[in-house]
Amino acid sequence: NSLWIELGDRQRVVTHGASILRSPVVLGVRTSIAQSLGWTGRDDVTVQDIAAAARTGAFRLAMTSATQSNSGATAYLGFLYALAGNPDILTLEDLARPDLQAAARDLLAQVDRSSGSSGWLMDALLANPDAYDAMVNYESVILETNAALTRAGREPLYLVYPANGLAVADSPLAFVSKGDPAKEEQFLALQAHLLSPEVQAQLLREGRRTGLLGLAGGNAGPLWNRDWGVDPDRAIAPVPMPAAEVIREALRLYQSDLRKPSLTVWVLDVSGSMEGQPLADLKRAMDLLLDPEAAALSLLQPSARDLTVILPFSNRVFPAITVEGNDPAALAEARAGVDGLAADGGTDLYAALAAAMDLLAPYAADGRLAAYLPAIVAMTDGASDQSNRDAMFRHLEELGFAREVPIHAIAFGAADTDQLQELNAATIGRLFPAGDDLAATLRSAKGYN
Q1: Could you give the C-alpha distances from 238 to 75, 172, 297, in angstroms and in order?
Q2: What pairs with residue 269 in β-bridges?
Q3: How confident is the model over 274-291, as a mean pLDDT?
Q4: 336 falls in which pLDDT band (50, 70, 90)?
Q5: What's the distance, Cα to Cα, between the start and end of the chain in Å?
Q6: pTM above threshold 0.90
């Protein structure tokens, strides 16, 4: 989206920018639910209508993170326009309005599943079609989802285009010159190829919009199925992108105050195999998360309503460290606790995960869990002892709520990815290789709750 160029190109070095394709960010909801809500065949469903329906439990909603995903940011900015009363341009004064913040907080509270990736959200729904009923995503991704659902004999999603606050990602291709005229010539040739009638027609067939305001109908292709609520001839009038300072403040507000709070259990492997660099990397990763200033650089800072639980383990499970909210002193105390961890003993990830579920059980029992986006994130570098595997999976079933809590994993070194992916698959979680850029890995992982 060109909004990121606007935010990042402070030296004005980007040239030759041109949008290659466009996709509005819309709501896709099971067709039977859209019919029951009376939304089919209508073009006047508002952002407020969507929030109200989700609030009544009409559907379980999934959406990508506004600070970690372009589709989430695009949708969120559109929501803010709608909730502000559709001003000509969104301003800092609008963002400061208590009524706008309250309405945005209420809307985002209806999100049942978060993600850092639009594509993963599609894949998760296809693999687990009963997990949620609706998602906010690119029009193009929902069309691809529907094609796959239809092939599998399942109910497709119905596309709802908000009558207010509709935002569009414009997918630009641009150039940063490093003083090589030959490369610039190659770039311009590539851009011209992508903008040629032949390639634009191919993009259109694959569910991407290629016109400025709408599409030429007739030969759009089978993905543009009008029974799904999509209209290839529909003119799209997106909200304007606000100034860079407004976007920055909107994203800060989202992360620090407006989003649904997270309840994250960080399950940290401190077994003997983590000695040396793996343990140092783990501590550095937790420092990035627990230092508010460092976390804010990647828009990972905790909010005052977040709940963070740190659960170290080896062949036994150590006492949990719990931080409520974002008090700097409490976060510093948690960092000191992590910094004091030493590597020793074997690896029993399954016992630690069972303990993590037990920590969440009281919140599920009294209904508090619904107020959070919960997740368990395991950081490990090895293969776990299998002795407690079956008991952990039985416990997962017995608790009932636990399958709704994703188990994500950050894999250090030679971690057994088969074991971790089995856990991911059982709970609609995701595996993240630690790699060399821990900040990027944490951004990716944290975007999922």
Answers
A1: 11, 16, 29
A2: 313
A3: 90
A4: very high
A5: 23
A6: yes
